[in-house]
Amino acid sequence: MIYTSITIFLLTIIVIQQLYIITHSTKSTSEYEEKVINAIEKIKKSVVRIDAWSNEGKPRELGSGVVFTKEGHIITNAHVIKDAETINITFFDGKKKVGILIDYSDQYDIAVLKVDPSNLNIVPADFGDASSLRMGQTVIAIGNPLNFGWTATIGIVSGLNRNIKADNRIYENLIQTDAAINRGNSGGPLINLNGQVIGINTLVYRGRSGAEGMGFAITSNRARYVANDILKGRVLVPQRSWLGIQPIEITPQLAEKYSLPVNYGIYIKSVIPDGPADKYGLQTGDIIIKLDDKIVDSVAKFNNIIESKKPGETIKVTFYSNNVLKVVSVKLEARSR
């Protein structure tokens, strides 16, 4: 009898200990999971899918966006909708609308779209203050990666104030995160555990080494600032000069392959009609080697020199045209977007 009582007592102690461990462990995990779940629940109705189509009716870009106002304004990346003929917006509940482009800032890679809000449950996102972010803080990326539909990925703030050169554009003061970001995530929100937008997912950097886990987002502060200026019809500041070309960086390999007269410089892929370059006779196929007697051997250096000038100032352009070396002084203009 005594042996049985002792056995029952010991088993009871063991069961109580196991229950305590399980309960304690579950509670600790569920508190964090609940924060993640609640943050996603808060933002999901504010995230949209964006399908951009060319004027030939072909898919041009797949992306995401975040609802900005009750009137149906949506923030996304400029590169998602730029040059699109038709923009289709799909909301979380499956309802579809045609998006109208209000305007975009190419230099900041932010665009504002507008949909007819009738028959929609419009839920504007809550925008937080990205200036208070700290490295190691949990963040969640929401969007439509690779056409899989609404998807959430989680990570941390890996870095702050990053400057990245990508797609002939220099991005400044980006948030770096290891939350998975893929094609289709562009324009969607990066949120904190309060469900607040603290960034707009913009690009993934893999470099020549094929690095993984390096996603970048435009800060919510900048996105909100640019979007508000667009809605107020303001000229976006700071105004930056431009030459009005689409540049391609020449490498020794490209120079050898196409028998170019130099193995460095900027190849003009296209000239913007009525832009500064067009007005001063630069053409597609010309190769710029110097700006104000400074050698340009990368798109980043080209952009930095151009943007260091104020609109209205002139710059000396040294370039090859049909293998003939020429020099022209071009009066720079403000970027129209």
Reconstruct the topology from this structure:
Elements: H1 2-43, E1 47-53, E2 59-67, E3 73-76, H2 78-81, E4 86-90, E5 96-98, E6 100-105, E7 110-114, E8 138-143, E9 151-166, E10 169-177, E11 189-191, E12 197-204, E13 215-219, H3 220-231, E14 241-242, E15 245-249, H4 252-257, E16 266-271, H5 276-279, E17 287-291, E18 294-295, H6 299-307, E19 314-321, E20 324-331, E21 333-334
Antiparallel strand pairs: 1-2, 1-4, 2-3, 3-7, 4-5, 6-7, 8-9, 8-11, 9-10, 10-13, 11-12, 12-13, 14-21, 15-16, 16-17, 17-18, 17-19, 19-20
> Which secondary-structure class do the elements indicate?
alpha+beta
Strand content: 35-45%
Residue share in helices? 10-25%
How would you spell out the order of helices and strands?
HEEEHEEEEEEEEEEHEEHEHEEHEEE
User: What distance lies between the first and last C-alpha atoms, to the nearest angstrom?
Assistant: 89 Å
> What's the CATH architecture name of the largest domain?
Beta Barrel
Assign the CATH topology of the largest domain. Answer: Thrombin, subunit H
What name goes with the CATH superfamily of the largest domain? Trypsin-like serine proteases
